[in-house]
Amino acid sequence: xxxxxxxxxxxxxxxxxxxxxxxxxxxxxxxxxxxxxxxxxxxxxxxxxxxxxxxxxxxxxxxxxxxxxxxxxxxxxxxxxxxxxxxxxxxxxxxxxxxxxxxxxxxxxxxxxxxxxxxxxxxxxxxxxxxxxxxxxxxxxxxxxxxxxxxxxxxxxxxxxxxxxxxxxxxxxxxxxxxxxxxxxxxxxxxxxxxxxxxxxxxxxxxxxxxxxxxxxxxxxxxxxxxxxxxxxxxxxxxxxxxxxxxxxxxxxxxxxxxxxxxxxxxxxxxxxxxxxxxxxxxxxxxxxxxxxxxxxxxxxxxxxxxxxxxxxxxxxxxxxxxxxxxxxxxxxxxxxxxxxxxxxxxxxxxxxxxxxxxxxxxxxxxxxxxxxxxxxxxxxxxxxxxxxxxxxxxxxxxxxxxxxxxxxxxxxxxxxxxxxxxxxxxxxxxxxxxxxxxxxxxxxxxxxxxxxxxxxxxxxxxxxxxxxxxxxxxxxxxxxxxxxxxxxxxxxxxxxxxxxxxxxxxxxxxxxxxxxxxxxxxxxxxxxxxxxxxxxxxxxxxxxxxxxxxxxxxxxxxxxxxxxxxxxxxxxxxxxxxxxxxxxxxxxxxxxxxxxxxxxxxxxxxxxxxxxxxxxxxxxxxxxxxxxxxxxxxxxxxxxxxxxxxxxxxxxxxxxxxxxxxxxxxxxxxxxxxxxxxxxxxxxxxxxxxxxxxx
Length: 696
Hints:
Elements: H1 2-19, E1 33-34, E2 37-39, E3 50-55, E4 61-65, E5 68-72, E6 77-80, E7 91-96, E8 102-106, E9 111-115, E10 118-121, H2 125-129, E11 138-143, E12 149-153, E13 157-161, E14 167-170, E15 176-183, E16 186-193, H3 200-210, E17 212-218, E18 223-229, E19 239-244, E20 249-254, E21 257-262, E22 265-271, E23 276-281, E24 287-291, E25 297-300, H4 304-307, E26 312-315, E27 320-325, E28 331-335, E29 340-343, E30 349-351, E31 363-370, E32 373-378, E33 383-387, E34 393-395, E35 410-413, E36 418-421, E37 424-426, E38 432-434, E39 450-453, E40 459-463, E41 468-472, E42 477-481, H5 482-486, E43 492-497, E44 503-507, E45 510-515, E46 518-520, E47 533-538, E48 544-548, E49 553-557, E50 560-564, E51 575-580, E52 586-590, E53 593-599, E54 605-610, E55 621-627, E56 630-635, E57 638-641, E58 660-661, E59 664-665
């Protein structure tokens, strides 16, 4: 049931991406995709080249790499290699048997078994190695309840070894081609090239001249032969993947061909030049293809979409070896060179890798044009318009020689249909034009750090390095410049006009009100009011909220002050931005994660911290915006369309993995507890410290 939930989520995510126009490989960048967290050698993996993923009965994740195996407990990786008994350390396959033993299939063909934190070689490894000179690569396919081991030996056939060491080898009649075995709902395959057979070179020459490749398909009661017409001499390798095990429907790939096979034979055949490493079938019929080279990861809504070349690109420009959905519906992607990608929520969509000019994923500012049109700016001065309806991401005009400035703020004026960047407006001739001063003698440029709307929709307030401004958007000129007209030269970090028309300014020395041409500090005995104020907002009941650099967030209304900091659950006391969405939810951005704040019936803030652990691409959140309750994030990893998973109703039962007494491992019996036992008490009794007495 949990995996069906994942399938529904993935289907919805693919629909959202489809609506963004990215179902074809040629779709304009950036291709939206789920927000993935990447684990590599810096995080503890033994190698970035990962071949397989498996979850064991205890919930541990296992990864097979070209440098041993790695076990992940959700926090850290524990690696196993030759020093731990894994003598052949290129691990292609990991299988858990009915006795909860974990089997490792290695490139050499040797198998190793993990149980009780010990790795031992498979008893019948010598039987496998008897064929060493006849196969190139081995893959462990299955270990059944009777300990019948099934392996594919490339170039030789399918080998089975039973519990007593009896072997049976299945191969093809002809010495060259492919072999597919359909048995008991399973599909096994390998390519065949028995060079030691007397007729091998005659058959090889015949196949070369006729440009064909023979595949024997072995079923319970018969063997069929499929003749594949080669589209390329050096095309994609031979592979077969189950699509419907009950009805014996499978995909067969060879020499740039894909065949959809059923009980009657070939359903259809198309040219397909990408090499498929693995196929994962979702319960809803959706298909995930892991592709070699730079093919990445693709999702097809149904198998016939392969024939139509209709798909969603989930990851690109990497080689993907396998995908896996764990028991909690988390999504894992193993890659050949880029480690592991992990997504906790496939509906949290990310835009990054915008184009070759961007050379940055750091989004610093957002402006909402409509529910389907979002402006966003980068740290290198570039600004884009994302159109969700058409899938286009269009760069706005940019001269890299003149403008490499950090995009501090974007503001969109609906009435004039104009976008403003750092106080410059994109004019009708499609050029960025500076704002004008109302005083003709003033020639200095205007550079804004932050903006906010005024009570007059055609005016905005803007903070700057020297004072602040009020700007008439219709005339594109200043109404007020505090530096020149009032002598207020303080650096301002934020500015906000509240519902009553009062203007609040964030200074290095704290928050102040702009009143009658002066900045007036509130008479409040609270140190947060004297801290640098980075962001100012307001709730529906006119509670002022401001974020500080060092003392977190302050809620202030009349005599009531609530200050929340890290000790109350904030990700950081250093605030970047605050946003109140259409539903009254308060969002707080920090460089250590996102914070969602709701107010209880008594007005007490309730905080939920959101970080990369919850699916964000980066903990660096620079700005927040929303439209109709949909939250958008400017992050260090790209532009994020935020999605929040509902709180889990249950959790995995906790268990102890080891116990040490006086530095020595000690055995114990009761290790598992119900999921609701979060208050486990551990008693230490009879702790004896020996005392040594010396007599003379």
